[in-house]
Amino acid sequence: MDTMNKTLRSKVHFSGIGGTGMVSVARLAIEDGWEVRGSDNPLYPPTSEMVKHLGVQVYEGYQESNLDWEPDTVVVGNALSRGNEEVEAILSRRIRYVSFPEWMKETILRRSRSVAICGTHGKTTTTALTSFLLDRCGFAPGFMIGGQPLDFPHSSRMGGEEGYFVIEGDEYDTAFFDKRAKFFHYLPQIAVVTSVEFDHGDIYSDLDEIMKAFRLMLRQIPKNGHLLLCADDQGAMSLKEYAFSNVITYGFSEVADWRCEILGINNGCQSIKIFHDHSEWGIVDVPLAGEHNLKNTLAAIAVAVLAGASCDQIQQVLPGFKGVKRRMETFHRFNGIRYIDDFAHHPTAIRETIKAAKSITTGRVLVVLEPRSNTMVTNTHQVELQDSLTGADAVWIGPIHRAERIPKDRILDRGAVVRFLAGKAVPCLFEDDVDKIVESIMINGKQGDTVLILSNGSFGNIYQKFIETAR
């Protein structure tokens, strides 16, 4: 393997370098000694800043001449497809090309002890928290986090040779030439499955297809490896019978191998008592809101203990975890109103995030939702979305992303959401003009409110609009 790496480790070009995963992989390539360049369409903050910090040449636009520096390998981003000028040049010139998950597999993960954090919800927070615990407990892990961690300078790093490498195991497809889930490339010694629900309706036709992908992923885990399943999630627990490795469960369930009980609030943290194999293990303070984050914490602790971390170490370092940008991140405060940004874009995540926001305030929670993901813009989760918003005190629904591309009989019915919530005494309106949403909230907001913005995209720059308006 080392010989192959030395042969291939030379010049690599990232087509679509502005993707969140691609930036992270490009940074790993630089650390690993590759000469790196890339290309993408015009980029804007924060992605443009992340790419700029790589310190490599990046060509604007996709064109054949971008490859004239004769890279040995091209890593092709998920957003590119046939017909793209650069893709066509890669194929016609017969340049070696791979997806970023495939590059990760052959270049990084084969010489690491891979820890893959998988599941419909909670992957990024759990990946960041697991990386944090392993790092602060002295294991110097490598990692690749699908967001911007607040505890590390960057979202990825190499880590020590033959050490742990924590990676977010995404079930979304890999590239235009590889429609398998990304996690099929990640060679886990340890895998965590936080939950399994229907999502990614543009890739999977139903929940059975997603379950099949997860079941097949389990075949990669060696017999002496470990599979961690959330005991509170039916989809995750249904995988247990398909495991070839040791299975460890975690959650609030009485049957879980790692279980916790909530004790209350201590110094701004959720204090929990943890039981391992039905014996008291210890009390820890978790600096995250929401029960869903307590389950994420249990998973991270279980992985850290497998690596050799002690209870004392974890108790000392855990309260210092700062989290991940766009995961319950307070990005602005003004006139007694707190503004929180969160990535939630699935009904279950939306419901749990609203509950988490409620748990940290005595005031109202005003929810601002952007239907943006390929599933959320459709009516696939129409009923579930309506139910998930009933915990809010008021709701604003923004424009449907790329609405013109969605068949009329498939598009999310925002009017139906408004009518349903009206029946639950939850004021709701939908508006395509983001400026008008900001204006409406500024008029209706009052001291003690929390404005909770839920989006997996830029939401028409609504965050900066709030900062500029509420000052």
What does this 3D model show about the protein?
With 471 residues, the chain is α/β, with parallel strands linked by helices. Helix content is 30%, strand content 24%. It is built from 15 helices and 23 strands. The protein has helices at 2-8, 20-31, 47-52, 85-92, 100-107, 123-136, 207-217, 234-237, 291-307, 311-317, 347-359, 382-388, 414-423, 434-444, 462-469; strands at residues 11-15, 35-40, 57-60, 73-76, 96-98, 113-118, 142-144, 156-157, 164-169, 173-175, 178-181, 190-193, 226-230, 246-251, 258-266, 269-276, 279-286, 329-334, 337-342, 365-369, 394-397, 428-430, 450-454. Helix 3 links the parallel strand 2 (35-40) and strand 3 (57-60). Helix 12 packs across helix 13 (414-423). The model is unreliable at 1-7 (pLDDT under 50).
